[in-house]
Amino acid sequence: MAEILVLVDHLDGDVKKVTLELLTKARALGEPAAVFVGPGFDTAEGRLAEFGAGKVYVADAPELTSHPVAPTAEVLAQLVTSREPAAVLVAGTAEGKEVAARLAVRTGSGVLTDAVDVTEVEGCLVAEQSVFGGSTLVRARVTRGTPIIAMRPNATEPEPAPTAAQRVDVAVALSDAARLATIAQRVFKPRSGRPDLTEASVVVSGGRGVNGAENFPVVEELADALGGAVGASRAAVDAGWYPHQSQVGQTGKTVSPQLYVAAGISGAIQHRAGMQTSKTIVAVNKDPEAPIFDLADFGVIGDLFDVLPQATEEVRARKG
Amino acid sequence: MVVPACRDGRAHSVREVGLFPMKIVVCVKQVPDTESEKALRPEDLTLDREAVDAVMNEMDEFAVEEALQLAERTGGEVTVLLMGPEQGADTIRKALSMGADRALHVVDDALRGSDAVATSAVLAAALREVGFDLVLLGCEASDARTSLVPAMLAERLGLPQLTFAQKVETDGTEITVERLTDYGHDVVTARLPALVSVVEKINEPRYPTFKGIMAAKKKPVRTLDLSDLELDATEVGAAGAWSAVDDFTVRPPRAAGELVKDEGEGGRQLVAFLAGRKLV
Ligand SMILES: Cc1cc2nc3c(=O)[nH]c(=O)nc-3n(C[C@H](O)[C@H](O)[C@H](O)COP(=O)(O)OP(=O)(O)OC[C@H]3O[C@@H](n4cnc5c(N)ncnc54)[C@H](O)[C@@H]3O)c2cc1C
Ligand SMILES: Nc1ncnc2c1ncn2[C@@H]1O[C@H](COP(=O)(O)O)[C@@H](O)[C@H]1O
């Protein structure tokens, strides 16, 4: 069976959930081989093995992480040439897609983004893509080179399949072009301790109705009670109430959690584009005509400052 | 890998003493207006562009604004580059009305159905043809939302990739951006020539003024086809795509569910619903 390369999405060895999803998917398609770029493999090894990475290609030369994107694409390009994998799976995040883009050009391969599933049909890999804000499902295949597929986080249920991970070190001679941009500094915003927005199984988002940064704790408390992440509409982000990284929608993140709670959000088409594939949608809005209610499985017409705290208290009470 | 000629190859040193303005090219795409429903055409499985109103990709307004601001601060000239059908002229005119100096429009019937790979090949050829110190793009087009073109262009042109920028600073020789990341941002530096893509919120795009709209009518727009770029029709369009659509299905729209009015129990009712679905 051919190898399926899975690019590990991690921060210093802290492996993102999407990688476990990709490994799970890769196991159904061939032999999963993880590709780990940067420092921290010792931290990551256990997780990768638990989810079936029988082999891990490790490239940890310091210069690979001092330049953005290009070095990772070159590591993968080298493996595509030497290992001839059946496919390369990457996380459909901003950076994952950029790596896919460079890899595609470098190896003369087609790339598919927004994949929510990949299956083998008569010896060929077919990706199911969720496009136009989730309103259309497209089935597509790569017709040249090695299929490079960027998969949406949260599209696959990760299933453990413990194995021993064999470490294979790879040395890569970077091109001059890959060294042209240099990361001079990494700036970390304070960590909230909440799950990542695109990976969370629960997302509670606040919009213009939250009416001020000082009121966002009302949203955060419900998110914390449900063990979820906090999102925001563009109106809330534009007003400076919540960081850009939290924006859900057409020009923000696409989320597909088990539960999405929209509080004080009208449900503009650009917002819906980022959340309408959520499994269950709940909305709280003062305005009975708010379009968000058209797609909510459950809606409460009311003031979020009454409804959210009561819901938070009720969740805490039920959890004991 | 071809490194684009920085005009005469000495541009850096010449510009350091302020003799040459920085040459900025901003890539803009025309896309269907989000408010209109997007659909694929059953005949050829491409986006039905006739059925929808076309506008400048919103993210590219931020790229145009940033180009204008950098040109104003550093001394420079802004060229707009668009690949797309005739009607793309409207989007070009908008960028010129905002203040860009000139434009390059790549039009050719063979381009229909181009994917990101083909689009980046065409834009790379056009960029080599015009020359530049700095290429600016939006970080994503709102139609297909692939976000692939900027990284592909950087790879093709051997340029430093400074993408997802929320802040850009350049003195015409060095460039520094803040690259938005999930954990905060990276400060990324390079020397020009370079490629930058911007995120929204980097600036406030200006509205074209009446004067700007009038001036745009006199600004030069050069039209190029594939032969001008020495590209072959088999490398682009649907013929040159490296992936293919088998078929598609339209998801039924979500149905509205239960709606209750809060009469003091709304929060508890909400949680009871969640409990019913085993979500708490
Ligand atoms: C090209 C483009 C891209 C865009 N991308 C995005 C995107 O990525 N994400 C995004 O979200 N938007 C995006 N937008 C903006 C979008 O069109 C809407 O303007 C935005 O989503 C509105 O945010 P909102 O629902 O929070 O605010 P509003 O539309 O102002 O709605 C606020 C809602 O809160 C309710 N409310 C007020 N007070 C209370 C209260 N106390 N209790 C309960 N309810 C209350 C009101 O009834 C109202 O329905 C984009 C727009 C464009 C043109
Ligand atoms: N046909 C095109 N003409 C000019 N610029 C384009 C074109 N397609 C994409 N771009 C640029 O590439 C950016 C990202 O687009 P995409 O990779 O398609 O999401 C856009 O914001 C534009 O700046």
UniProtKB/TrEMBL annotation, chain A:
Gene Ontology BP term (one): fatty acid beta-oxidation using acyl-CoA dehydrogenase
Read off the InterPro entries from this record. DHS-like_NAD/FAD-binding_dom, ETF_a/b_N, ETF_a/FixB, ETF_asu_C, ETF_asu_C_CS, Rossmann-like_a/b/a_fold
Q: Does the keyword Repeat apply?
A: no
Query: Mind listing the GO molecular function terms for this protein?
Result: electron transfer activity; flavin adenine dinucleotide binding
What Gene3D superfamilies does its record include?
Answer: HUPs, TPP-binding domain
UniProt cofactor(s): FAD
Free-text cofactor note: Binds 1 FAD per dimer.
Record domain Electron transfer flavoprotein alpha/beta-subunit N-terminal: where: 4-187
PROSITE patterns named among the record's database cross-references = ETF_ALPHA
Give the matching SUPFAM superfamilies: Adenine nucleotide alpha hydrolases-like (SSF52402), DHS-like NAD/FAD-binding domain (SSF52467)
Pfam families in alphabetical order: ETF, ETF_alpha
The keyword Secreted appears for this protein: no
Assigned keywords, A-Z:
Electron transport, FAD, Flavoprotein, Transport
Residues at which FAD binds: 208, 233-234, 247-251, 264-271, 285
The family note in this entry says: Belongs to the ETF alpha-subunit/FixB family.
Q: What does this protein do?
A: The electron transfer flavoprotein serves as a specific electron acceptor for other dehydrogenases. It transfers the electrons to the main respiratory chain via ETF-ubiquinone oxidoreductase (ETF dehydrogenase).
Record note on quaternary structure: Heterodimer of an alpha and a beta subunit.
* Name of the molecule in the record: Electron transfer flavoprotein subunit alpha
Give the organism, scientific name. Answer: Wenjunlia vitaminophila
What's the source species' lineage? Bacteria, Bacillati, Actinomycetota, Actinomycetes, Kitasatosporales
